[in-house]
# Entry
Amino acid sequence: MKGKILNRTPLLLRLTVYFILLFMLLSGLSVYYASKIPDKYYTFDSSKDSFTVNSTYPLTTQVRNDDGNYSVDFKLMGIIPVRSVSVEVLSERSLMAGGQAFGIKMMYDGLIVVGFSPVETSDGEKTPAFSSGIRVGDLIVSANGRTDLTNEIFSRIVRESGGNAVELKIKRKNVEFTVEVCPELNTNGDLQLGCFVRDSTAGIGTVTFIDPVKGIFGGLGHGIYDSDTGALMPIRDGEAVSAEIYSVVRGSAGAPGELKGIFNENDRLGSLQKNRDEGVFGPVSSDCDVSGEIYPIGLSYEVEEGPATILCTVDESGVREFDINIEKVLKTGSGTVKNMVISITDGELVSITGGIVQGMSGSPIIQNGKLIGAVTHVMINEPTRGYGIFIENMLDAAE
# Structure
């Protein structure tokens, strides 16, 4: 009897090891496939009973409608739960496609710290802002309780402090804290904190859509980030006006091109109220004189690899349509902005711009008669190629 037990031990051990390895493999696959599933699905059809992530993935779906909440469960090989994702049912919707160049003027909701400069004092160089714990990228939310900060107002508060500590409320990565900084008197008799701050930005982009029913517009397809810190900037208020393109700096490998234009201050598109990762948005001005063709929107599951077009303005002739190719549809694991890989196939556009250039961000993408998204980024080393965002992600951010 004792010998039989000993003979079985290696078999039991091997089975245990195989079971553990199988469990680890399935767990790893579940985590991997979960990362490929979007955070949310959109559909026009509330009766839709399945969703495709990728035909090569062994995932099955089961739609649930619990207490009015529409969601879908993903399972590995139909057995192992992987992830549950909410589904938003959208009403059929049509938008006016943009393509117009527009000027962006945006005031930050605070002051962004972009650098430091030592204060030359009678006792040597001092940098009080840095010494107090302030760092590049911090947002100064208030100074001595005042929140309507501009560069000028901030400088005045420091100058009029009399050398006493200035109380600053700082926001860093969504965490707020307060510091007190004593200005130093420089050799010219001016009180300074030794930091550079920025209160606003301006630039040119392209309008993606105007919703004539809800009276809102969206553009850029990506957020406005501070050029020095890379931070997505909170908006206090802003304005969108029409812009006239007067020249183009052609893009080349390693050197992004640019549309150059001038703002038409008397032709307001609307006000800017949201600066999100997916673009800038706001209400359309009541006297906005913008016209465009109305398109039904196409959701991500309708987007196909293959020919499409974009609408954009690259010279004085106004909005024009150019050919592109959607090389790859990144329905999973691509975030909310880089959802498509696109390439410019229109010879005329390439001859004018070299490909995708700064200022073209937001150019609407049209496929099969539907507005499916917008141009967002260029591939720096391949200016004829870049990325696009799904229109549903822009609309979600706008609302």
Q: What stands out?
A: The mean pLDDT is 86. The two ends are 74 Å apart (CA to CA). The chain has three domains: 35-89, 94-105+200-398, 118-193. Residues 2-34 form the longest helix (33 residues).
